[in-house]
């Protein structure tokens, strides 16, 4: 009858540490393979086979009113959601001017617009070119400076 090998306490602790390190390494490899599989599945998703033109039409349908004849007069945020799904959708949405024409700029100004606000407004106007964008600004205070906004709109009007 063969006797089983005897291990010292140090050897047992070393075997446990090596086994735990192996488990961590294998779990990391499993996670990497899951990520790779997810990327592969995404790359063959049917939506990726749509042409840019068809995807743009779908975007336009997504922002139409319930009658389907006019772009919904909603905030820019609804359009931005489409542009944040992935880099391809961002490219298509940014190069579809009609998508941005119904993005109604409505704002009640209580203070002078910041540089960031003006940059975002210019981006909206640039993306919608050559189509018009409806704008409704309301100034609640006589102290609000809207000269920069007016300059922006006059430059493209």
UniProtKB/TrEMBL annotation:
Stated name of the protein: F-box domain-containing protein
Coiled coil: 16-43
Superkingdom of the source species: Eukaryota
Keywords for this protein: Coiled coil
